[in-house]
Design brief:
Layout (H helix, E strand, L loop, with lengths): L2 E2 L23 E4 L4 E8 L3 H9 L8 E8 L13 E9 L38 E7 L5 E8 L18 E4 L9 H12 L4 H12 L7 H20 L8 H11 L4 E5 L8 E4 L2 H11 L3 E8 L8 E7 L5 E9 L4 H18 L7 E4 L7 H7 L3 E3 L2 H14 L3 H20 L3 H11 L4 H10 L4 H10 L5 H18 L11 H25 L3 H8 L3 H6 L6 E3 L6 E5 L7 E5 L7 E2 L2 H4 L5 H10 L9 H14 L6 H26 L4 H5 L18 H10 L6
Parallel strand pairs: 1-2, 11-14, 14-15
Antiparallel strand pairs: 2-3, 3-7, 4-5, 5-6, 6-7, 9-10, 10-13, 11-12, 12-13, 16-17, 17-18, 18-19
Protein name: SWIM-type domain-containing protein
Keywords: Metal-binding, Zinc, Zinc-finger
Pfam families: SWIM (PF04434)
Length: 703
């Protein structure tokens, strides 16, 4: 085959089939006689279809992951070759590149096992497969992708097939009949066992998964049954207490699970105990849903009941549900300590995605140090009201018996918060609250002792920071409620003061629950799990309520009614509609939660007159109004504020265009060209040989 040195001579191929693979393309030798690769040109929009086709290889079914990636911005190169990349992705078979069986000579899942402490038949996923290819989005032609196949065969370094039905040594002598148990199947089986699903159902799904690699066989079913039973016994017998001493136990766990830890600091006389947990799957979700999006924090969970408070970092997935991507266990909220783990977490994400950057960070505690967040992530900070609302509503219901008093008291608490935008003196709003409800001794004692000393700090934070939306608050609250149900079970109340128990619960039950939720949604399997996952937030439950079920009284805007969808004879009453401090008489709301009836009513009130704006919209208007009211004589401040406003409006405009288009190339064409760096501007237009000569002449002489 002739070697081609110019990409212009290589034709663009667009197979007619939906998913295509290596065999459907004509490959060309590209490069020089000393170094050349097999390449093909395809439309960039069909890269995903090529990857799906490669994963569906009958001889070696697999999945490909991004091993390495790089990006460039348009206009960053003054001179470039035809094969320079705008985006570079190295895809590697998920059975490589590492080989976890090296060092022992024989893999634990082969004809006999090595003498390990864990006697479970748990085959490792890394087989040292060298199959990989590169996808380059061309700098000169962004609509095209250059495929470079470095190694097409699924073999190890020795040249032997290392996974799939043709690998005779993968799982003993019967590899043609016994399929390889991939990480995905193993994680699925473990998640179902951790969640308490009956063994019969676990075995059924396990066999369905392994049948993707081979047909049904009596031997396969028998060995699969043994595998599921043994794995279930190991999980049931496992314990969080690796040592009687809690500190020693967590140290042993940290040594065994280094891949799931991104920060660990033992307790000493000068340093506080800190443990940062993030599994490989959580890291993938952080990069996938956190890049260019929001990250939120549930910052002070278990501050009264656990030995060390738990802070959770959350991202919002494709359905805008809160997904935990990191857990930090520590009692220290010092700026220096927070900055330590935040920088390491960012570096960990950027090691997977070099251009990783978040667009906003949501906090829920006014005492949170915001300087480390700004210094590390360099992004705006938003504030979520869910913790304030939940705490006030729970105590109003708990400490006041009359529902009419509960409604009026909760509405008055909302007016205290609204006073920072209505131009009302906050001290007068608080004075009115204490005078009107002086008879509610239990609640007022709680409010004056817990909230009154720090109410100025909270209101100042609410006023100074933009507020998160009701949907984001509902998603964070849904995670908090699920975490509380998982951890504060009556059977484990005696272990709340042990860190190893907390780590065990997080990395087994809670992690498995969210992994199975995402897997069920993406693979369209486990329909019951998928339905529960979709309806896990009040926002999505509110979408199921039709507009016709909501009744708003034009004469009395303080009351709204919502007809129940399960029982049409039941009607829920929402008091103070259109406000974040609306009050509903349903059981879920009376527990302090944001219910679907309030979300639905507030959504309808946004499009009708007579109701006030939401707090997040008021906060945005206040920020814009402050910019508009800058005095003209303060010209530099006015110019800076106007520039920031225009930049924000431009970003919003681009985001709307990006979410509404089907072809990203139309937006890329309209992006402005970036200038070259100042240091290289003098060489623009000068031939490369002369420019190199000038740079060499300008260097200082080395002594």
């Amino acid at each position: 085959m002739a070697i081609i040195e110019s990409l212009e001579e290589i034709p663009v191929q667009n197979p007619q089939v939906e998913d295509f693979s290596w065999a459907d393309l004509t490959w060309t030798k590209f490069g020089t006689s000393e170094h050349h690769d097999d390449v093909a040109l395809i439309p960039y929009s069909r890269v995903d279809e090529f990857i799906i086709g490669e994963c569906s290889n009958a001889e070696c079914p697999t999945r490909f992951h991004i091993e390495r990636g790089r990006k460039r911005s348009r206009g960053s190169l003054k001179e470039f070759k035809s094969d320079e990349y705008l985006e570079y992705r190295l895809y590697w078979c998920s059975f490589g590149p590492e080989n976890y069986g090296e060092g022992g000579g024989v893999l634990p899942s082969r004809k006999y096992r090595l003498n390990t402490r864990n006697r479970a038949a748990r085959p490792q996923s890394m087989r040292g497969c060298t199959c990989h290819f590169v996808v380059k989005r061309l700098y000169a032609r962004p609509l095209l992708a250059l495929l470079i196949y470095n190694e097409r065969r699924h073999v190890n370094k020795a040249g032997f097939i290392c996974h799939g039905p043709l690998d005779r040594d993968a799982i003993g002598p019967g590899a043609k009949k016994i399929p390889y148990i991939s990480n995905e199947i193993q994680q699925q089986t473990m998640s179902m066992i951790y969640l308490g699903i009956p063994e019969e159902n676990v075995l059924e799904k396990h066999i369905e998964g392994i049948q993707r690699y081979c047909g049904s066989d009596a031997t396969v079913n028998s060995l699969a049954s043994q595998y599921v039973h043994k794995l279930g016994m190991i999980i049931k017998r496992s314990t969080h207490e690796l040592d009687l001493d809690d500190q020693a136990s967590i140290k042993i766990w940290a040594e065994r699970n280094k891949k799931s830890i991104f920060f660990y600091q033992e307790s000493s006389e000068t340093e506080q105990f800190m443990l940062g947990i993030q599994t490989e799957w959580q890291l993938q979700q952080l990069v996938r849903f956190g890049h260019g999006s929001l990250v939120a924090a549930d910052s002070t969970f278990g501050i009264k009941r656990l030995k060390y408070p738990l802070c959770t970092l959350l991202v919002f997935d494709s359905r805008h549900h809160a997904l935990p991507v990191a857990w930090i266990i520590s009692r220290s909220y010092l700026k220096s300590d927070v900055e330590k783990w935040m920088k390491i977490l960012l570096q960990r994400a950027q090691s997977v995605e070099p251009g990783f950057k978040i667009n906003g960070f949501i906090i829920d505690d006014a005492a949170t140090e915001i300087d480390p967040i700004r210094d590390t992530f360099c992004c705006p900070i938003l504030f979520s009201l869910w913790r304030v609302r939940r705490s006030w509503l729970r105590n109003v219901v708990k400490k006041c018996d009359n529902i009419e008093v509960q409604r009026e008291l909760f509405k008055c608490l909302g007016e205290v918060v609204y006073s920072i935008w209505d131009g009302v003196d906050t001290s007068k709003a608080l004075e009115r609250l204490t005078q009107d409800f002086v008879g509610q001794t239990a609640f007022m004692q709680y409010f004056t002792s817990t909230w009154l000393p720090k109410i100025e700090m909270w209101l100042s934070t609410i006023k100074s920071l933009p507020l998160a939306s009701q949907e984001a608050c509902g998603a964070i609250e849904a995670y908090h409620v699920k975490l509380k149900v998982k951890l504060f079970d009556d059977t484990h109340l005696g272990a709340l003061q042990r860190v190893d128990w907390l780590v065990h619960k997080l990395t087994t039950e809670l992690h498995s629950s969210y992994w199975l939720d995402r897997y069920a949604d993406e693979s369209d399997s486990f329909q019951n799990v998928k339905e529960e996952y979709i309806a896990s937030t009040s926002w999505h439950r509110a979408l199921e309520i039709p507009d016709s079920a909501v009744t708003l009284d034009e004469n009395d805007i303080l009351v709204a009614k919502v007809q129940s969808q399960k029982d049409t004879n039941v009607t829920r009453v929402v008091w103070n509609p259109g406000s974040e401090f609306a009050f509903c008489d349903c059981a879920w709301s009376l527990q302090g939660n944001l219910c679907k009836h309030i979300v639905k009513v507030n959504t309808i009130c946004e499009n009708r007159g007579g109701y006030g704006d939401s707090m997040s919209l008021r906060s945005l208007k206040e920020k814009l109004r402050n910019i508009k009211m800058k005095p003209m004589d303060d010209s530099i401040a006015l110019d800076l504020s106007m520039a920031l406003t225009l930049q924000m409006c431009e970003q919003i405009k681009q985001l709307v265009q990006l979410s509404g288009t089907d072809d990203i190339s139309n937006i890329v064409k309209d992006l402005p060209v970036k200038w070259g760096c100042k240091k290289g501007r003098t060489t623009i237009g000068i031939p490369a040989s002369i420019a190199a000569f000038i740079k060499k002449k300008s260097k200082k002489r080395k002594r």
